[in-house]
From TrEMBL:
<dbReference type="GO" id="GO:0046403">
    <property type="term" value="F:polynucleotide 3'-phosphatase activity"/>
</dbReference>
<dbReference type="Pfam" id="PF13671">
    <property type="entry name" value="AAA_33"/>
</dbReference>
<keyword id="KW-0808">Transferase</keyword>
<dbReference type="GO" id="GO:0006281">
    <property type="term" value="P:DNA repair"/>
</dbReference>
<keyword id="KW-0418">Kinase</keyword>
<protein>
    <submittedName>
        <fullName>Putative kinase</fullName>
    </submittedName>
</protein>
<dbReference type="GO" id="GO:0046404">
    <property type="term" value="F:ATP-dependent polydeoxyribonucleotide 5'-hydroxyl-kinase activity"/>
</dbReference>
<dbReference type="GO" id="GO:0003690">
    <property type="term" value="F:double-stranded DNA binding"/>
</dbReference>
<dbReference type="InterPro" id="IPR027417">
    <property type="entry name" value="P-loop_NTPase"/>
</dbReference>
Length: 160
């Protein structure tokens, strides 16, 4: 029987998600990283101070982690990318992309809804991640009826 230690990544990974609210970022975390990576999320931690403390614990304990926030801009991603690189982590970015209308529909089904203005603001500010930001790998993820479709980001044009 496999244990979590059997499937832990050999290299410490910092996975940074980018995407609209209700794009499927948390579902991607649950489907691909739950058993191997800690989840850093403002939805859970609520303050940047708590988030920074949790991030420090991950670095100190060499724990792989996923940042499950919208992270729409280069500056917002840099708060995780640079410290992770300095700590010796492999930094992997995922753009979780969905049509704005689909995200808005999913948002309406949520228990804790994001105001429509918040969705529009993130959509307006969203900048596709690039290797120049310090990522070692970049992936494009979309959820479909048959599960996740994950491809190298640089080979996929913007969907929406």
């Amino acid at each position: 029987m496999l244990t979590a230690y059997d499937i832990m990544p050999e290299v410490m990974e910092a996975v940074i998600f980018s995407g609209l609210q209700a794009a499927g970022k948390t579902t991607l975390y649950r489907d691909r990283f739950l058993e191997t990576h800690a989840r850093i999320s403002m939805d859970l931690l609520r303050t940047r101070a708590r988030e920074a403390a949790f991030l420090r614990v991950c670095f100190e304990t060499r724990t792989p982690f996923v940042v499950d926030n919208t992270n729409p801009t280069v500056a917002e991603r840099a708060r995780y990318v640079q410290p992770a690189r300095e700590a010796g982590y492999k930094v992997i970015g995922y753009l979780v992309e969905v049509d704005h209308a689909v995200a808005a529909g999913r948002n309406l089904a949520r228990e804790r809804k994001v105001p429509a203005a918040g969705l529009r603001d993130v959509a307006r500010r969203l900048v596709r991640p690039t290797p120049e930001e310090g990522f070692d790998e970049l992936w494009h993820a979309t959820a479909g009826p048959d599960g996740w479709r994950i491809e190298p980001l640089l080979t996929t044009p913007p969907l929406f």
